[in-house]
Each structure stands twice: as structure tokens, then as C-alpha cells.
Amino acid sequence: MIAAFLARSPLQRAFICLVVPGLFALVVLEGRNAPYAAVVAATVVTGALSLLALFAPERWFWQCVSAAATASLTLTVVETQLRQRPENTPGMVELAVLLLVVTRAVRRLRPLKAIGLSAAASCAAVVLSLRLEDWDDHLYLFISLLILFAVPSAVILGLALRMRDILRARAFEAVAQTQRLEYARELHDFVAHHVTAIVAQTKAARFTADAGHVQSREDQDRMLAQIEQAGAQALGSMRAMVSVLRDPATPAATRPAGDLGALRTLTEKFSVAGPRATLTVDPYLTDRPVPPEVATTVYSVVQESLTNARKHAEGATQVEVRVAPHPEAPDRLEVSVTDDGRRRNQGGPTGENAAPNAHAAGGGYGLVGLAERVEGIGGRISAGERPGGGWCVHAVLPLTP
Question: Cross-referenced PANTHER family, in alphabetical order (predicted)?
């Protein structure tokens, strides 16, 4: 709760600090109208639970709403059996907060959960007036107004806010897509232009050398200076692009850069919340630097495979991760992740190039993107059931860039 409060913006924190104490004070004042001390305390508790539900963080929202609605309904039922009940107010702050809880539930939650919590909070708000001592025509008219106008208004407000959030998210995605296209054009127009110039000048130098023409020192210096200038311009364009895309207030996530040491941490974290994972890395690889793009791809293969094992491997007790040079091709790297679990609805094609069909087999798009990454550096990947049971993801990657 405290971490969620600190994660809010300063304006939201100030609003909560100013409004919540005032509303709680009103809840206490209304509770003092009850004739019994126990009922006073219960009224304060139900009002506080309603406030907590209204301002609770997203992951605790449904639990708080359930507790607040249950406590409010229970207190209402108990008070209807008492001889003496409040004469002035049943708890109008609690009633208003419960209606706002309905609005928030409709706005934020998935349809089924929103319907359930909204119904519970609405029911608690409607019957709350029955805590009063005098049951007359005015009371029934007030309850009718709640049913016909207050509750539907809260639901309509929640739906309107939900639609606004959807439209804002779509507008943001459209802006982000436009920015991505703009960045892609800039990369093509500037960085690709400079890199193309470097390639062309290098080819010209090699063609001249292969033809047997001897260049003067001045010509060589001029050509190398042009290559150096194009490279510097490409670096400048890349730095400008990175400065635009990077948020200086948010540290970038670290990835492995030339070694496989991060795999140990990855498997240890997996073992804490999932089946036991064992990692075996050939000693030959510990003394040999691995290209950064290869190390990153190995990390991605293991990470995605462990994620799939946690999600889909029913009854798995062990996951084995093995990284070693290919026995038949020492210049290639072999990565395998195997488990002893069972899969449902994954009877699709296996073998090489089977990963792109993983979504059709029920595995989502993770393996599709992984296959594209592996093939992008000249490797290959396959995934399927093992003959002895379980599942295996096998990748072969080049040890050179």
C-alpha cells in the first residue's frame, strides 16, 4: 500500500492526504449518531473500508471492494434488528463513496469482475438507508431514487471514463506508431546513407587494389579520410537518435554483453518460483569471449524457454539448461532447454522452423519473435516434444558475429 501511494504523482498524493482525512472525520461524526458504542465503531469501520476501497491501488482494489461491501451489508442487516437506530443519517459519506467505487470498478476492471463488484457495492449503497429508525414514505422514495438514478448514473460515468481511457490509449498508440515510422525514415535517410557511403568507398578501395593500381599516399589518405568522416557522421546520427529515444530519468535495462554469466542469475531466479532449473555451461565458453549479439540471443532463448516452461509445463519438476559448442561444428554454439512436464494443445509441428507455428499450437508469439531473432544472426531453432516425455527447445547459433 505504501509503495503504491509513493508511486502516485505529487498532485495525487496531496489530494489523498487532504481529502481522505476530511472524509474520515465526516464518517466519525456520522457514526456518533448511532445509539450504541459498538454500532458507532462498526459504522466508522465500514466507512473507513469504503474509503480504502476507493483509493486502493489497482492490485488490491477488488479485495478492498469485497471487504467494504460485505462489511456494509452486514452492518445494515444487524442494525435493522436493533430496537434503537440512528435518527438523522445512515452514513451518507459511506453511501457516496460506495457509488464512486461502482464508477471506478466499471472504469478499471474487466467486464465480469466489474459487474460482480459493482453489483455488490450498489446493493450495499441502496440498502444502507435501512439503518435509519423511521421507515416511512420518504425513506422508500430515497431508496427508489438511488435505484433509478444514482446507481445508473455511477455506472454511466464509469462507462464514459472507460471509453475515454480507451480512446486516449488508441490516440497514444497512433502517435507512437507515427513516431516509430518517423524514426525509421530518419534511420534510413541519415544513418543508412552514411553507412552506404562507407561500404561504397571501401569497395572502391578494394577494387582499385585488386586491379593492381598503385594509389599514391595522398589518394589513400583522402579515401580513408572520407571513410572516417562518413563513420563519424553515422555515429553522430545514431547518438542523436538515441538521445531522442532514451529517457534520462529511467535507467536502461542491462543485458549480457559478451559473456554468459547472466544465465546463472536467470536460472536461479526461475528456481525460486518454479521447477528446479540446472545450468550447464561448457568450460570452453567461459574462457572464450562470445559476441554480444550472440550472448544476447542465448539469453533470450533461455529466458523465453523458461517462461514457457513455467506457463505450459504441467507437473514439471526439473528444467535443464545446457550451453556448449556444437559437437560437429566447433564454430557454432548449441543451446538446449528441456523439461519433464506435459503440454496441452501443443501437438503442432516440431523440428527446425517449427517455432514460427508456435502460436497455432497454443504457445503464443514469444517463440515466433525468438525464431526471428535467432535466424537474424544466422542460427536455427526448433521446439517440440522429447521422445522420453517433456519438451525441448534447441537452438544452434554461430560463435562469430
Answer: NITRATE/NITRITE SENSOR PROTEIN NARX-RELATED (PTHR24421), NITRATE_NITRITE SENSOR PROTEIN NARQ (PTHR24421:SF10)
Q: Same domain for 230 and 319?
A: no
Distance CA(187)–CA(181), nearest Å, equals 10
Q: Are 331 and 400 in contact (CB under 8 A)?
A: yes
Residue-wise pLDDT for 264-303, tens only, equals 888 888 887 778 899 998 888 776 777 888 888 898 899 8
Look at 252 and 64; give whichever has higher pLDDT: 64
CATH number of the domain where residue 341 is located: 3.30.565.10
Tell me whether residue 163 is in a domain. no
Q: Are residues 87 and 191 in the same domain?
A: no
List phi, psi (to 5°) of 58: -55, -45
Q: Is residue 168 part of a domain?
A: no
pLDDT in tens, 176-202: 888 777 777 766 666 776 777 788 878
**Domain enclosing residue 82, as ranges:** 2-135
pLDDT per residue over 211-244, tens digit each? 777 778 887 888 888 888 878 877 777 777 766 6
Whether the CB-CB separation of 266 and 301 falls below 8 Å is answered with no
Same domain, 268 and 362: yes
- Residues paired with residue 279 on neighbouring β-strands, in sequence order: 321
Q: Are residues 233 and 275 in the same domain?
A: no
Is 92 within a domain?
A: yes
Dmax over CA atoms of the chain, in Å, equals: 113
Residue 335 lies in a domain: yes
Whether residues 22 and 96 fall in one domain:
yes
The per-residue DSSP string of 66-103 comes to HHHHHHHHHHHHHHHTSSS--SS-S-HHHHHHHHHHHH
Task: Return the residue matching grid coordinates 552514411.
Answer: 194
Say if residues 72 and 84 touch (Cβ distance below 8 Å).
no
Taking CA atoms, 234 is separated from 187, 189, 197, 230, in Å, by: 10, 11, 10, 6
113-122, 179-188, 333-342: which has the minimum mean pLDDT? Answer: 179-188
